[in-house]
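Internal QA ticket QA-208
Title: Verify multi-chain structure generation after dependency bump
Assignee: T.L.

Test input:
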Amino acid sequence: MKKWGALLLSIAAGASAQERVTAITNATILTVTSGTIDRGTVLIRGSKIAAVGADVAVPAGATVIDATGKYVFPGIIDTHSHSAVEGSVNEVSLPNTGMVRIADALTADEISPYRQLAGGTTTALILHGSSNAIGGQSEIVKWKWGRPVSEWIVAGAPRTIKFALGENPKSANFRPPPGIERQYPSTRMGVEEVVRKSFVDARDYMARWDEYETRRKRGEDVVPPRRDLLMETMADILRGNIDVHSHAYRADEILMLIDVAREHGFDIRAFQHVLEGYKVAREMMAAGVGGGTFIDWWGYKAEAYDATPYNVALMVRSGVLTAVNSDSSELARHLNYDAAKAMKYGGLSEEEALRLCTINGAKLLRLDDRIGSIEAGKDADLVIWTGHPLSTYSRVETTFIEGEIYFDRARDLRQRQERAREKADLLARERARRPE
Amino acid sequence: AASVAAETIVLSEADLDTRRITGVTTVLAVPSTGIFSGRSVVLNLSSGPAASRVVRTPAAMHAAFRTRPTWTYPDSLMGVVAYLRQSFLDAQHHAAARAAYDRNPAQPRPAASADLDALTPVVRRELPIVFMADSPEAIRRAASLAREFNLRLIIAGARQAYSMDAGELRGVPVLVSVDWQDAPSAREDREEQPLRVIRDRVLGPTTPAVLAKKGVQFALVSGSGGAGDFLRGIRAAIREGLSTDDALRAVTITPARIFGVDRQLGTLERGKIANVVVTDRPIFERRVKMTHLFVDGREVRPQPAAETTAASAVDGTWNLTVVAPQGEIAIHVTLRAERGHVSGTFSGDRGSGEITGGHYDRPALQFTISAELEAETHDWVFNGTVDDDRIEGTVSTNLGTLQFSGSKQP
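Actual output:
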């Protein structure tokens, strides 16, 4: 472990007087990007980390949290979530449903984000499901439990979309109810064709708008073409305005999509699941594509058998930007364990393991200038752990997002009593109503 | 969207009476299926030819985030929102193309579309759009679409709006449905629920009082509840703190203003339509009787027997057959109706248990069963029309919308 003694200066000199200042002191700070600081201080001013170091001065008036014997770690980033979506996460009806948006169906009526906060997870990429070759537009959120869902959305984050290859989009795992016909495509060839055709159509659509603009600029009285939300989405992918995160298991289809992307001129940001990534890590590396995967979850369907827990280490060693992610509201509560397992399977260093659930995910989401490590100037998404987060004996004490506490173990225990009382009061109030 | 309630609504004299008996002289009749369900009409409940009752048509466009798990687009909530968004874009485009063609016939001729014609005044802010939305999140979803397309939004339902900030509803009239959730009779259904479910059920009836305090413009409506429950629902809101003055405004002048008929309706003023109710005691007191009712200046005498005899038409055991793709499914239901609320049990090929959400508003019967299918249970919502001892209609199921029919055991 590297030791840090340098004094890191506050950069928040211009911050307003009303901004709350919190200092977490005497903690073991796992910065992820700059090593470990023993008995250090993290200074939070407003929503940002103002300073980190072994020798940070705590300003008068700051709320001080003494974290002696405890660890401070960045909020965990889950690059594959389906939590907090009202209704289905799949718009199953068409092979390409790029017009639908997860942002339109976010809900706070689900407990799982709060449980994820209790597991140290603060940021998630909420993806459309995998029933279609091209699914809906995904959303990057922070679990600001208790706030309206519109505030969960990370402002200024890249737009993203879900693609899916293999068994799911060819309907092997999405059987329509009796009486309804199975839809195209039903083979891997068909899945590839849907993707290719969608981009051919998008080029035509863009050409129609270009022609309209040309004629309008010439002063002609022309009616603009119909705005088609699906084609707008496809065009925005081609313009580089939407990042593609593609569900994929098998090596052959990973290579297929890399080829199709090259042919049509768009980038793939990451393959999701990518259990056979170890076979094509060099090709992924060459194409600049990252991977979000599970450490030891496989065998649940035909295309998920040729898997190994060494996949993560093999991809990391090949230089592929790799993150562990959940695809599950349950697994999302302990992604730190999945990171730890990568030390056992493939011998990643502690620092490499820590990156798997923090800064690497931030890079896949292209938010590494804001989240994923403990650095002055970054969002104060911080978690205080009772011990090292790679140990199964450690648990979360407090979770901050942008300087606000969204989970605190002591507060939670208090709230259980308050909520029991509220429930009893409500039921008493209901009983007291005279039935008419 | 092209459907117009004024053209499709059929009200028998008995239908009119179930509403008149509660002192209602004017209704907003709303088509009730689909994402864009169509345009509503303001109707006076007078006797005489249907066309003569129309006060304003169309009064508003109506929409809801209704999903149908049928594997046709849109199948999911996010699909429904995308569908709404595309429809508003198409209406804007249709209007622009239409205008360009009228200006210059050398332009491409736009395809005819009754649906887009119906949406054109909505995107031009000439016609308001009423979104059905009960929860704060659904209300915010509607508000966000209305902002995106600059629509004149009205919210209907809003039974959980008690938890919203006034700022979120600024400039948005709300039609609060007083069809409050009853406490479930079984203890575990009532108490072993997440806190938020209990909160919404118990605090729902505080919504009108909360909105009044926050200065939000609101009307009270019967919603999906039976006509007979309207006054009962209003009384529940009054017990939770709504003043009787605010309640009275919310069923008279405010709805008249919201739908632009306040020059004709909503107050007792010289020159307005003579829709007048005379009661034997203040109208929101229990056991109130309507002694005289005038609609369009003419006295009508609703038959109080109508509702009680109507309710008994449902009571009994019914043998129902649901036509599913894999064959016919037999279900027996035993029902009892009381003031529009229907309780009872079901048994048959898909399990057994108590029915929920039962409602009877002659001749429309609605109830829900929890059907078992491959170890999972799904809500099947029956919507039928009762005709003597026969019933037929549709069931919304996880298998899609199915037909059903049946008869009452003698």
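Spot checks passed. The longest helix of chain B spans residues 77-103.
Status: verified.
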